[in-house]
Amino acid sequence: MSTTEQPRLAVLISGRGSNLQAFIDACASGALPAQISLVISNNPDVAGLQRAERAGIPTTCINHRNYDSREAFDAALVNELHAHDVDLVILAGFMRILTPVLIEPYLGRLLNIHPSLLPKYPGLNTHQRALDAGDNEAGATVHFVTPELDGGPPIVQARVPVQPGDSADSLAARVAEQEHIIYPLAARWFVEGRLLLSGHRATLDDTPLPPTGVQYSPE
Ligand code: GRF
Description:
It contains 6 helices and 11 strands. With about 220 residues, it is an alpha/beta fold. It has a domain at about 1-105: Rossmann fold, CATH 3.40.50.170. An 8-stranded mixed β-sheet has the order 3-2-1-4-5-6-7-11, with helices on one face. The chain has a 3-stranded antiparallel β-sheet with strand order 8-9-10. It is globular, with a radius of gyration of 17 Å. Bound molecules: 5-O-phosphono-beta-D-ribofuranosylamine (GRF).
């Protein structure tokens, strides 16, 4: 990272961009000492792109439908990330499965947030699955991205109660509030040089994190 300017983030989105908004707000307030250099969406005309444009952040749409393979799509992403000299890549509701073409060059500098208490419920429909299982709590996990889908080392996890009468949407909204706190927090640890991917573990301040990451609780 350059010493004269703030670390450069790229945020990759596919839709609504509420986590992107949390990053925009955290950078603006100084809670996250970094700049968002680029927002990439694989879908055109999504709300997240408008959020970025309103904040004056450069955006680009790289539409996966225009590529013959996942690898070719990922190579286009890597080109764009390199061109913007990105230090940290934030997957924020980016609904594409990545290949080693992107993961390898950014290994240890590539974060995702998943709306479950990993290792529970990798993949899709996490909130409905938690409700169907009768779970009494749900949550979200920030983790390093490795080639294993939703399987990279967890960094930080926030838990919320499942309430009587919850739908997948009401539970998702409760979880999203926590996502917007823990994701910029994990990025802050990274840009401060405190968070590393070390083999198959995440370390914070040189201490290996537990298999479910730091358990976040409000001060
Ligand atoms: C969030 O629930 C996140 O956990 C998941 O995708 C959703 C993105 O929402 N990976 P948004 O686009 O950030 O509002």
